[in-house]
Write a structure and sequence with these properties.
With 161 residues, the protein is α+β, with helices and mostly antiparallel strands. The chain has helices spanning 2-21, 35-41, 96-114, and strands at residues 46-50, 55-62, 69-77, 86-92, 118-119, 127-130, 135-140, 145-151.
């Protein structure tokens, strides 16, 4: 009986590890990390940090071929015990056609990797969602940016799709 329980435990661990490895990684961090843990792992230079209010944030400057003004954001919502639940790449691009081209590029890339993304029905945040993988691609005209949100699919964060 003990061998059977051990076999079931190992099989469960293997399945859990396989499932988690199918999720896209965001840099070198894991969902549920604290701000201090993310800071210790992130290799970029910290640009800004906020720990007050409903959500803590870490903001890093990113050298990118896609945009001269790119940043990496980490979000730590208070209602998730101030643990990492959302992370983003933000590529500022003033020209709408440049944002459209970059959105199309990432849309094709993610479709190849994860299957067809569902179009967002939120007219304020046009883009695509891959819920199972925890990815939301946004062409945000208000921020003049393309944003790629990575979120913990096990969390209660919800997006319009």
């Amino acid at each position: 009986m003990r061998v059977f329980n051990l076999a079931i435990a190992l099989l469960s661990l293997l399945l859990l590890t396989t499932f988690k490895s199918d999720l896209p990684a965001f840099r070198d961090v894991e969902w549920g990390m604290s701000q201090a843990e993310v800071k210790a792992r992130e290799s970029l230079t910290l640009n800004d940090e906020h720990s007050d209010g409903a959500t803590g944030e870490l903001i890093y400057r990113l050298d990118s071929r896609y945009s001269p003004n790119a940043e990496v954001y980490y979000f730590f919502p208070q209602n998730r015990q101030n643990r990492l639940s959302l992370a983003s790449y933000l590529y500022e691009l003033e020209q709408p056609d440049a944002r459209d081209r970059l959105t199309d590029y990432f849309h094709r890339r993610f479709n190849r990797l994860y299957g067809e993304g569902k179009p967002s029905t939120n007219s304020n945040l046009p883009g695509y969602v891959w819920l199972k993988q925890g990815i939301f691609l946004i062409n945000d005209p208000g921020a003049q940016a393309v944003v790629i949100d990575y979120f913990d699919p096990d969390s209660t964060i919800t997006f319009s799709q």
